[in-house]
Specification:
Layout lengths: L10 E4 L8 E5 L16 H6 L3 E5 L15 H27 L5 E7 L1 H12 L6 E5 L5 H17 L7 H15 L36 H11 L33 H11 L12 H12 L11 H5 L3 E7 L7 H15 L2 H5 L2 E6 L6
Parallel strand pairs: 2-3, 2-4, 4-5, 5-6, 6-7
Antiparallel strand pairs: 1-3
Helix pairs in contact: 2-3, 4-7, 4-8
Length: 363
């Protein structure tokens, strides 16, 4: 599809030859991935197996990096929101042509970037879907990137600030000791991390680092991971990870270097410079530029979901409390902002439910 002269949006629609249930199931993407989801719990195949006509888009580019954005502002729009909407409209037309009638109900299911797409659809195009499932939504796209680069910048400037797997395990065990029982059940899971009162300074070495304590710089790293600094442009919190997520730290680059998605965001979408490096990141000024550059193209943060609710749309969101890729506090923050915008929590609960899963990581 070519909604702009620079668009190259690919869409696949899979339809059961027999046994169609009369519904459409569209699936989301992950990170900057420019590909279709063929086989997983959220895929073309899984929807087809359950009798749905299913749809997927590559969001207008190929490959997993953000390099597609360099010099291609229309492709950024395609990735941000246009490809999913165009796919939705086209898929319904294809389904109607094949079966003689369109879907009675249309559903979206995506996690991470697919959760961001879910929120974007509810906000921008309330008539596209009747039901939306948004898992671990990365809807604060610029904030997430800035949060990861803030920590990476600190790690790069302090050689003794990095956390080995053994040091991460030290933190994990200390968190369990402090907070496992906070939810009333001792089960080696921090079931309610927002009630966890843990100060990593209790692990700071009193003398030399003997491997069973944290250096002052490492204590600061942990505090930064848990912290939620204010976005100087929007005033919203850029939420950090929560106590209980430590078992997921070592696999995600939080403690070693810049995460690729954050680095790509600033290289290709903010500064248009593939050589841009983490050491140049300034939290106070760079995130302002990122917000101004985005202008709501990638961020899906509009809390006024009344147009979606008023037409009968239902939004189910879920997030793992132990997610270290996208902060679960981002999900609760957005939910509370929706309640504030609508002004009636009971009315919100009739259309929007958020489920937080203890012990669950990303997606």
């Amino acid at each position: 599809m070519t909604p702009s002269s620079d668009s190259e949006i690919k869409v696949e629609v899979w339809m059961p030859a027999t046994g169609w249930n009369g519904k459409m199931h569209a699936v989301g993407n992950g990170a900057f991935t420019g590909s279709h989801r063929y086989g997983s719990a959220r895929s073309l195949a899984s929807g087809l197996e359950r009798g749905y006509a299913t749809a997927s888009t590559d969001t207008g580019h190929e490959g997993g990096s953000a390099s597609f954005a360099l010099g291609h502002p229309e492709k950024v729009i395609d990735f941000g929101w246009r490809a999913v909407h165009e796919m939705t409209v086209t898929a319904k037309q294809v389904i109607a042509a094949f079966y003689g009638s369109g879907p009675e109900y249309s559903y979206w299911y995506g996690c991470s970037a697919g959760g961001r797409q879910a929120m974007m659809e509810a906000q921008r195009f309330p008539g596209d879907y009747d039901g939306i499932i948004a898992g671990a939504p990365g809807n604060d796209w610029t904030g997430r990137a800035a949060g990861s680069l803030r920590i990476a910048n600190y790690l790069g400037a302090h050689e003794d600030a990095g956390l080995s797997a053994a040091k991460v395990e030290l933190v994990r065990m200390a968190v369990l000791e402090a907070c496992d029982a906070a939810d009333g059940v001792i089960d080696k899971v921090v079931g309610d991390p927002e009630r966890c009162d843990f100060d990593p300074a209790v692990l700071q070495c009193s003398g030399a680092d003997n491997g069973s304590c944290l250096t002052a710089a490492q204590v600061n790293t942990v505090k930064m991971l848990y912290s939620s600094p204010e976005n100087p442009k929007t005033g919203r919190a850029i939420t950090g990870v929560l106590p209980g997520s430590e078992s997921n730290w070592t696999d995600l680059g939080w403690t070693r270097s810049a995460r690729a998605s954050g680095l790509d965001q600033y290289r290709y979408l903010v500064y248009g410079d593939p050589e841009w490096t983490v050491d140049r990141f300034d939290f106070g000024t760079d995130i302002v530029r990122a917000e101004e550059t985005d202008g709501g193209t990638l961020n899906a943060l509009d809390p006024d979901l009344r147009p979606f609710f008023d037409r009968g749309g239902k939004l189910l969101a879920y997030h793992g409390w132990s997610d270290a890729q996208i902060s679960p506090a981002n999900a609760t923050q957005y939910y509370h902002r929706v309640v504030e915008a609508v002004g009636d929590e009971q009315a919100v609960r009739e259309s929007y439910r958020l489920f937080m899963a203890p012990g669950m990581g990303h997606c």
